[in-house]
Design goal:
The chain is an alpha+beta fold. The protein is 30% helix and 23% strand. The chain has 22 helices and 28 strands. The strands form seven sheets. It has a seven-stranded mixed beta sheet, sandwiched between helices. Strands 7-15-14-13-8 form a five-stranded mixed beta sheet. Strands 18-26-27-28 form a four-stranded mixed beta sheet, with helices on both faces. Helix 13 packs parallel to helix 21 and helix 20 packs across helix 21. The longest helix has 28 residues. The radius of gyration is 27 Å and the shape is globular. The chain binds dioxosulfidomolybdenum(VI) ion. Dioxosulfidomolybdenum(VI) ion binds next to loops.
Length: 774
Amino acid sequence: MTEHSRFEANGLLRQEDERLVTGRGRYSADWMIEDCLHAHVLRSDRAHAIIRSIESGEARAIPGVCLVLTGKDLRATGIRPQQAQHARSSHAARPLISPDWYPLAVERVRYVGEAVAMVFADSVDHARQAAEALLVEYDELEPVIEAEAALAQDAPQLFEHMQGNLAFDYRCGDTQAVEQAITGAAHVTRLTVESRRLAGNPMEPRSATAAYDASAGTYDLWVPVQTPGTLRQMLADAWGLEHDQVRLHVQDVGGGFGMRSIAYPEYLGMMHAARILSRPVRWDATRSESFFADSHGRAMKFIGTLALDAEGHFLAMQFDVVCNMGAYLLPVAPHIMTLTPERGLAGAYRTPAIAARFRLAVTNTVPVSAYRGAGRPDTAYAIERLVDAAAFELGMDRAELRRRNLIREFPYMTPLGYCYDSGDLAGILERALRTANWTGFDQRREQAAQRGRLRGIGLSLFVEVAGNSIAQNDSVRISFQPGGRIVLHCETQSTGQSHDTVFRRVMSDALGVPREAIEFRPVDASRHAYGTGSYASRTTQVVGHLLLAAASQVLERARTRLARDWSVPAGEIRFEAGRLGDDKHSESVLALAERLHGESPHPLDVHASGVPTVSFPNGAHVAEVEVDPQTGALAVCNYIAVDDVGTVQNHAVVVGQVRGGVVQGAGQIFGEEAIYDGSGQLLNASFMDYFMPHAGIVPTITVLDHPVPCTTNALGVKGVGEAGVTGSVPALMNAVVDALRPTGIRHIDPPVPPCKLWQAIQNARRRTPENTHA
Ligand code: SMO
């Protein structure tokens, strides 16, 4: 049986499942390239220091060592440092200052874990031994760890040309209108919330192999990547190469989450080594190393203000946001810390005036970049906690306050100029409340109290932006192969989102051909298509839209050809159930394609490209939790997710994405946080110390689709990849704070591991119930 027929016969939900669950997945460390040298990276063990010297004599003397590469060596090759860009740098109060980011530190280290040197040897052991034999002489500097401390007067400075460690000061909205509304408001709620720094942990630690072909002048890399098009471009640009000179090989990626989209230092060092040593080179990160070598996420603090009239109508919303960027600005980081939040800053509400200021600070910590949701969970958390706080202060039901301020008509233009194309926020809100039995909660709280538990219920109503793109263009190509096969070329690697299942089905429906005739090629060394890849929940709307456009071109061409063959007007040829025909003739797309194989290029091969749009997935999530005040233990009792992700292509995939996202958000609540001490050491860089979410922390998750078709793409999809996490962070924290209300606690930030909850409850009991902050 073919893989496809087994997939059908066994009732499997996804094309990919059988291969992946029977151990036939192929991740980057599974590629075995012959004759490899091995790399080991020497990383800085201090947060901020001048590199006086690197003595490598002893290291070079170790048998099997082929190359010791330092930052100075690499800079001397003429490599271009990477820099972040920002679409609106010139509109900012102060333009973006993006420091040069070299793969290996030159002259100065700025965070623990920064790559200082790479050693290449005939074995992993020799490479490590040699790295340990390197003698680096440092002059230590004072480090700064937290963003606000970095922005303070007299803080240690990371870069000479960046005064006050302020990389970017970005403002949006009508500040004057907001301030006026606040002054005249009947009620003003203020709340500061923090979305702490996370270290993402994909299942697959990063592994890479690089090879150089001297005769062709090309590089081959086997890497885990979610954005093959962008990565190729970044690697090529660093070396001043044509993009075609870098070829990426990737089959499966064990988790992307935004972290698999960067031209990481190791890749650039390995390209150099592969070229000058004329040998392929390989590097496998250890799990602990990944905590320093991969980008971190979140690290945003929001000071929020909400102004309301006497009836609880929102008048204005304002946020002062401080972001901890880490030691360098990764390429898309300034974008996701400003424009992504801005696009969804209205949330689900008709607030007439909205303004925000974002200050991006550099610190002596691991650089921050996209991490599932990339600014959206943080923003939703800030808005939804603020709305809950206002409801509490006004003595209003939280659902009622939201109801009163809902966006009810679409399209809706936010005060910041973004257009929510479609939605049914009232519908999803009521459905979530009904499913969760919101009105019956008091009874459940009562029953829990009798068992000595604090029970809380929390609601989040969110709108997030998807397809949030820095891309100019994406393209796909459809090519017809002999033997009745159709190949879909694009550049967007799945990291678990089931692209193969979804896109084969889209094309099979559009052309009326069996799914097994279709092959989906997400990464293509021969450059038949281009794109920026898979992030921001964008792939189905962008690539799916282009695939549909390409399919209609195929049908158009087929019609034109058949009209000629049959001598009938093209307008009379109908397309039904996979066949083209009129009253007298009939031929399937595949049969026609087969008949035309003598011609070159194949007459039905098409290419479609376009500028990607954005969409606004939205949802209402309700979480119910219990806290044991004796131990501080938190348990999630019930979780309802009602999501409008636009037209659903595959329900199982939607459910999987939402559940995974909800649990990933719950990780941030239950314990995830990258914890630094004052000297800049990361204290929990292992699974012994860093909390990892698992399915058990949110035992039951009800996922309900509430599709309202998106109007800006042909498939009607809005994207689902990040909806779960964007909804769950605020829903769970609203529930936790609600549970703690009887103790007098009015706000607490995640993570809330038992020790923190227990301590907060103890502290609250010692204080007056009024105005208590944990
Ligand atoms: S955090 Mo994402 O891959 O936009």
